[in-house]
Write a structure and sequence with these properties.
single chain; about 240 residues; alpha/beta; eight-stranded mixed beta sheet; 6 helices; binds cytidine-5'-monophosphate
Length: about 240
């Protein structure tokens, strides 16, 4: 069925090799506990599916999720941000497009306990030390010959302001913003695209539909004489 659906999709990414990160990362505290981010992986998996249906060769690097691998997509499972970083950096050189959708934990625990930390009956709590994780997207964007880099930003407010600032800070051509608490775990989302020409709003829709629109927008930006999508926005975001 997936292959029949794919037949009807325009092959706007034919012969393109795409690397996508998705899901959360999980940073262990001890063998039974950890630090993670809210992310179901649904948006990243939908983008992997849409890219594949658009004719791309897709590698999906996924943190822990319960989602099924989209048809025809090569998936590599990781747990921590460092593992995600290592897999991405070892594969990104051969890719034309990198889409970082994963909600990567900003910090990992420096003093991971080898054994389960026992709860103190007197209420004394353990002290955790944090180390900053590598910024995978920024590192890829800073490569001498980077692929076309697309980042995601999940904000809780001020999306218009934070979105463009983040795009510039990460030095990437395209950043996709969404309001985190309105999308986490849900099947629907709404997106705001930020690029050098301004903003484009994709109204609330199913994540699979939005993923197709995003893939079309990426393909249009990669095409040599692309027509700018001028859906320029008025939005409530
Ligand atoms: O800085 P912030 O986490 O908000 O940036 C979000 C974007 O950067 C997302 O595309 C995310 O996948 C990527 N990112 C990353 N490595 C990190 C943190 C974020 O690739 N350590």
């Amino acid at each position: 069925l997936e292959q029949v659906i794919a037949l009807f999709q325009p092959k706007v990414l034919a012969n393109q090799r795409v690397l996508i990160t998705a899901g959360p990362t999980f940073e262990p505290i001890d063998p039974v506990r950890g630090l993670t981010n809210l992310s179901s992986g649904k948006m990243g998996f939908a983008i992997a599916r849409a890219a594949r249906q658009a004719g791309a060769d897709v590698t999906l690097v996924s943190g822990p999720t319960a989602l099924q691998t989209p048809c025809g997509v090569y998936r590599i499972n990781v747990q921590t941000a460092e593992q995600m970083h290592d897999v991405v950096m070892s594969r990104v050189n051969t890719k034309e497009i990198f889409i970082a959708v994963a909600a990567v934990a900003d910090w990992r625990i420096a003093n991971i306990s080898e054994q389960k930390i026992k709860k103190d009956i007197h209420g004394k709590v353990p002290t955790l030390q944090f180390v900053q994780n590598p910024d995978i997207l920024a590192e890829v964007a800073a490569l001498p010959n980077p692929p076309y880099c697309v980042g995601f930003a999940a904000e809780s407010e001020n999306l218009l302001q934070y979105g463009e600032a983040k795009r510039k800070k990460k030095n990437i051509p395209l950043l996709v913003g969404n309001i985190g608490p309105q999308t986490f775990g849900k099947d629907q989302n709404e997106l705001m695209l930020f690029d050098a020409n301004g903003q484009t709003y994709f109204p609330r829709a199913n994540k699979h539909e939005l993923a197709r629109q995003l893939i079309a927008a990426i393909a249009a930006r990669l095409a040599p004489h692309h027509e700018q999508n001028s859906n320029t926005l008025q939005s409530s975001l």
